[in-house]
Design a protein that fits this description.
Chain lengths: 139, 183
């Protein structure tokens, strides 16, 4: 799985950079983002033919480092949401704020409701997901 | 039976009352459109809290509710174990549909500044974009798509585009009714 491969690769770089921190904090893997890190996303916008959204993972504090941020666009259907592809941010361990934009063709869809879905991981293996409120857009 | 003096006083008071009402309506339309059917901020927050609790009840840990980059909507993150992405998506979507979507649409949708309030916010938007490195956009523009195109011309994930979309998110209500990004 891509995220696992990414995590293994990024994890090595992250571990080298932060081994002392890992020992000090002993943050559990596959848990919440470490304290001091957060994830947010902007409601989508359109230029009339494409819908754009941005997710941003941010960290503040000595031991808090974001590893990657991904985002994708989702469109409301009758009883569910359809998803565009994930836009994966390259892992860049130890950065404090990482934004990733995503887009999806909306040409000819008229007025529909869209949202941005963001995902972020810290260097300790914590992963989180966020959704914006649905935004009505006319394409 | 009312005297002529009493009738005059009555009509004067009525005229003053009508004048105040018209003046008040004009003041309202100067800043923003009619908000009488809009849920309150407290009602919107309650709907977000119910959605958060619903996701928690579905078995996922959730973060605190925080203000989104637009400065008005609220968001919370969901801890996502490896391989649980689809389950998180299904849980959030179901909870959002049950508790939030209708309230959020009514609370956040259809916000349109007018008059001086719009002019001031439009200037702030253009200033925000210029600070992000995006120049050449006019405060007289009434089509948000022109701004979005100009921002995205800087390239996906460019610092200008990231900062520019954040500016747009903060000032969505400057665009008039029927606009592509603020219908």
């Amino acid at each position: 799985m891509r995220s696992l491969a990414r995590r293994l690769g990024a994890g090595l770089a992250g571990a080298l950079l932060s081994l002392p921190l890992l020992v000090a904090t002993a943050a559990p893997s596959e848990a919440a983002l470490i304290s001091g890190c957060s994830l947010s996303a902007t409601r989508p916008f359109t230029d009339g033919v494409t819908t754009f959204g941005t997710a941003t993972g941010s960290c503040t504090g000595g031991n808090a480092y974001m590893d990657y941020t991904n985002s994708r666009i989702q469109r409301q259907e009758t009883i569910s949401w359809s998803s565009g592809p994930w836009y994966y941010g390259n892992p860049v361990p130890a950065q404090v704020s990482i934004s990733k934009q995503s887009q999806l063709n909306c040409n000819g869809t008229g007025t529909r409701t869209w949202r941005t879905n963001g995902q972020a991981g810290d260097i300790y293996g914590g992963t989180a997901t966020v959704y914006t409120t649905g935004q009505s857009l006319t394409c | 039976m009312r005297t002529r003096k009493q009738l005059s006083k009555h009509w004067l008071l009525t005229a003053v009352a009508v004048g105040l009402a018209v003046s008040s309506m004009a003041a309202c339309s100067e800043g923003a459109d009619d908000d009488s059917d809009r849920p309150t901020a407290a009602e919107y927050r309650q709907a977000v809290e119910l959605t958060r609790s619903c996701v928690e009840d579905a078995g996922f840990s959730v973060g605190p509710i925080a203000e989104a980059p637009d400065g008005i909507s609220l968001q919370f993150s969901i801890d996502t174990p490896e391989g649980a992405e689809a389950d998180v998506d299904a849980a959030y979507s179901a909870c959002e549909e049950e508790h939030l979507l209708e309230v959020a649409t009514a609370y956040l949708g259809g916000r349109h500044l007018t008059g001086e309030a719009r002019e001031q916010a439009m200037q702030e938007l253009v200033d925000c974009l210029e600070n992000a490195g995006i120049t050449g956009l006019s405060v007289a523009e009434t089509d948000s798509r022109v701004f979005v195109r100009a921002i995205m011309d800087y390239g996906e994930d460019s610092p200008e585009a990231s900062a520019g979309l954040l500016c747009m998110d903060r000032y969505r209500d400057v665009w008039p009714p029927g606009d592509a990004n603020n219908p």
